[in-house]
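Hi R.,

As promised, here are both runs. First protein below:
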Amino acid sequence: MKIIIAGDGKVGLALTRLLSEEGHDLVTIDTNREVLERSAQLYDVMAVVGNCATMATLREANVEQADLLIAATSADEINLLCCLTARKLNPSLHTIARVRSPEYLEQLYLMREDFGLSMLINPEREAAKEIFRLLKIPGFLKRETFAKGRVEIVELRVLENSLLENVSLSRLPEVLSGCRVLVCAVIRGGKVIIPSGDTILRRGDHIYVTAPVAVLSELVKRLGIPQKKIRHAMLIGGGRVSYYLAQSLLGAGVRVKIIEQKPERCQQLASMLPRAYIIEGDGSSQSLLETEGIAETDALVTLTGLDEQNVIMSLYGSAEGVPNVITKVNRMESTGMLENLSVGSVVSPKELCCAHIVQYVRAMQNQTGAAVTLHRIADGRAEALEFVVHKNSRYIGEQLKDLRLKPNVLISCITHRGKTILPEGSSSFQIGDTVIVVTSREMPILQFNDIFA
């Protein structure tokens, strides 16, 4: 497809990389000539210097022939005006706007058609939702939801002397005393393995486990992972993610303490979140953290704008025995480096944002049979996709043991009439079933039939 990306910051550059890998015809727009030249050198894209909200710049980017415009500049207002202007020039254009300000949230959902928006994306709000999900069932490093919330893929680390250490996957039901789960991906030595029954789990592996939601609590108990309900959370950094997350936590009855350095932001947070404790101070100060009771808190979430500071504070929180630590990382290329550090769960707002947009792009290409949900797992090195089986799907009703899948593709779950099935050789899928597929292939899986050899 012909896609215009307006804004060549971190999100714009990541989208350029992902969408160019999938073979799209890309045009990037930015006011900064240097960053555009960097993109043009790295990827096969056309670059346009200018204000993306003006007709002249959009025409230079050939907006009339484009299929999709993604407005991802740092200014919400520019993004909205860009989409509005582009739709006037090309009424059939799909548009996606990144809008981050909480003040615009309600009115934009009411005015989506007026602005000509196909999709709104708020990276900070998506990150807050992800963190809230992780804190609801502590013990998992990542949680991805499928099948209308019935099934999840969760990330765990195989620790020394864990029940899982040196266990082959074929023995997993025996080791877990009948708790049925399916390991659909393993990260070992920085590489992703799509496992078989012969795969043996090793200490330090990061594993991705598929299970119905009801089974996850049982899995945590069997593995002996402490699962204390969170009653008090400490958030370091008072940005947008903190605001959205604090709203959800307070609504769930959790006491929230936010540490923020800027006095004016502290005043804003105090007025917006009257039930939260707002502390003005430097969250990287050891004495302040001790004074505010870091050793007694149930959860520490580091949310400043500096990745290095977040990592250091999370390491300190882990050393102080905080049972649940979550680290926000802005630079997506940094997430893989943190695998073996005690920083708890790593959440990247920009990575979440890019995954949602890539899913929308693939759905545009394949209206029938496209993934209804896409999650990038294993630090972006694998994908978990949810498909709905339709009348043109291949091999309906045939046993899985008789099917040939492409290399590095695994069917990890089938949902049939609301019942979740962890597949065996005798399993099959029917029209209307939901099928979750995990793949580490470099070539994207665009529709369900693409998984078959």
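And here is the second one, sequence first, then its structure tokens:
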Amino acid sequence: MAEIWAQVAMVFGLALIASLIAHRYRFSTALVEIIVGMVAGSILAAVGGYAAFSVQEPWVKALAGIGAIFLTFLAGAELDPDVFRMKWKEAAAIGVASFLLPAIGCWAAAHYLLGWESSPALLAGIALAATSVAVVYTVMMEYGFNRVGFGKTILAACFITDLGTVVTLGLVFAPFTWKTLLLVVALAAAFFGLPILTPRAYARFGGKPSEFEAKFLLFWLMALGALAVWAGSEAVLPAYLVGMALAGSVGRDAALVKRLRAITIGLLTPFYFIRAGYFVSIPAVVMAPFGVFALIAVEIATKIVSVYPVARAFKSPHKDAMYTTLLMASGLTFGTISALFGLSNKIIDEGQYSTLVAAIIGTAIIPTLIANRFFLPRHLLPKDEAELHTPAHEAEVEKALDDSEVRS
């Protein structure tokens, strides 16, 4: 157990470093955790200590997986039903545009530029077209956009894009069996049944120190996740659907959502994001960068070509449309899931997997950093957040930090 506790301490130590960097430079904590994981993994590999963090151990996978499931659930729960009804055309159009052309473009890049066979190239196209709910939702939370219609529309568009990823991946590579049919029936029952069952269960048993509400959600998310994996799908898919179904009840319980966020962001997601970065070898990318940078460039370019005009067509100003476009270009969750699916089913080899995952992580970092640095729509920030993101306030924070460093 001493080795396990040491690894847990290491993860939270890296998460603390990421939090300090993110706070100092106003970056997204999730993205910094990925970068810190990359750097830590490469340094430890260089000194022969890569095994210091057992990224493939079942307990690490379980904690990282629960983090992704809960984060995806919270993203679904933030989809305000009223906003979705008003903005469904915009969300659907952006979501479809964000998947179709990027999938085709990235398939062509992998097939014709990198020389991959048809099946590996198709998998790469599907994986790179996905938008990471985990990354986008974290950014939305940190800036407060998850509380306004602008951010909720982006989250709804993410759902459409990722639904396209999951459906296409299943239709192309996963055989449709009786297990798949059983999963579809179970998800439909949960989607329509949980909104009726949950409020009644909370009214009767909730509000107690036993935290019945959290345990109730954990049971259903884990049970449906297990069923999804057994059927050949992924555990995060039911989480998003359940989150959407409960957006009108759980999503409006601010106290419960705050407690769930504390568990998710404070305890679980560091394992997910740091583990994702830990897989990428910086020296390997430096030695063979063409494939990685080609896929990143094509993914971002096709997202801009497809999403930006659609956002502008729905009357978004240039800055808002570019911010939406770049966030829709942020990949990670379903992209890495698709890549791991391909590796596990021998659709891609280890070299292709490394290139693909490095490119996916690059899309999680580069577009989001550009979006927050150059296209952040400050006029859409909630009032309390807007006051924290003005140039004057940021200058005051930097001056205070500089003064404290001088005094120390």
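A quick note on the second one: The CA atoms of residues 68 and 141 lie 15 Å apart. Let me know what you think.

Best,
J.
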